Amino acid sequence: MTRGDKSAYTDKQKRKAEHIEDSEREKGRSKEDAERVAWATVNKQDGGGKKSGSGRKSS
Question: Considering its fold, how many domains does the chain have in total?
Fold first, then answer.
């Protein structure tokens, strides 16, 4: 996944980021800062755009 590519995120994560971005814009942040904060928050809460686990087998 290239930097900035949001295709690995679920629809729910995308909606959450959009909602956070709107909220940040209402607080007066620029579009770029609001988007950055929104995706950073989604990544922190949900672990990013991972579709599966770490790839390691559990024993």
Answer: 1
